[in-house]
Each structure stands twice: as structure tokens, then as C-alpha cells.
Amino acid sequence: MKPFRVRELSITDSEALLAFEIQNREWFESHIDARDPAFYTLTGVAEHIECYLSDFAIGAWHPFVIESDNGEIVGRANLKSIDSANSTAEVGYRIDQRACGQGLATLALKHLIQEAQMRWGLTQLVAYVYEANIGSKKVLGRCGFLLEPPATSAKAGDERRFVLSI
């Protein structure tokens, strides 16, 4: 595997993050809900980063990017909806289509688990994945997440909930 590093999102990431999101827009939208079209501008991404960093400052989110050895953003990972009172958070990640199969989603998720434990003192992480997203379900299983049984009212296209107790 090539060297990659996971680091916190920075306000200076606007241009690189926009390039990453535009390059992978169609790929991402085939696996997760689409973003508002206004997001796909330098202003839209800069506002997005500012919002994430504001939420980080108040302890609600912890945003990261994954960089290749040449500094290109090839993935994102977030602890989101951090609930310190209940020691829980949701995880999310997205990997550049060209970088899939190199272990980056697993790297990102393991980093999120470590940050959740060490920095935030969390005891439970949750992930939501569409049924058809086989790759993410495999990554979650590899990292110890367990699929919760779907609610009786769940439809075929609904997201599935995975939980990790840490």
C-alpha cells in the first residue's frame, strides 16, 4: 500500500477538497445522498469547511482528510453528531474512486475509532449504510461494527445501522 496520512481538515483545503468532490461526484452519488449543487463551487466548499470547523470547535464534529504521499486529497472521514453526554458519535467516510481497494476506508475508520476513544472518550460508534453499498458494509465488519437487525418497517432501499461498542 502506498503511504497515506489522515489529518484534520483545514480551512486551506478548499481548492483540493473541491477538486476531490468534483472528481468523485457521480461515484459518491451512486452510494450516498447527493449534495446540493451549490456545494460544488469554491465558495460552497469553503463554507462547508467553515461549518465543519465551527462544529469541531464546539465538539460536535471531528473532520479529517486522507492525503496521498503527494498531498492530494483521496478521502474524507468524520466523527459526526458527537454526543459527549451519551459517549456516542456517528462515523462517515468517502474514498476517491481511483483509490478504492487500497485499504483507505479501513485506515480512515480505524483512525476514527482511535480518535473516538482517545480524544473524545466515546464508547459507541454508529454508521449508516445503504443496503447496496457492499464495500462499506465489508469495511465496517472488518473494523468490528455489527449490523443491527432492520426495523420491521424498513424498506429494501433503506439505510442499515451498524454499531461498534468501544
Average pLDDT figure? 91
Intertermini distance: 27 Å
| Order of strands in the sheet with most strands | 1-2-3-4-5-7-6
Tally of structural domains: 1
Choose one word for the global shape. Answer: globular
The SSE string, one letter per element, is: EHHEEEHEHEE
Quick recap of the structure?
This protein is an alpha+beta fold and 166 residues long. The protein is built from 4 helices and 7 strands.
Structure description:
With about 170 residues, the protein is α+β, with helices and mostly antiparallel strands. It has a single domain (about 5-165), classed as Aminopeptidase (3-Layer(aba) Sandwich), CATH 3.40.630.30. It is about 35% helix and about 30% strand. The chain has a seven-stranded mixed sheet with strand order 1-2-3-4-5-7-6, sandwiched between helices. A hairpin with a 4-residue loop joins strand 3 and strand 4 (about 90-95). It is globular. The relative contact order is 0.15.
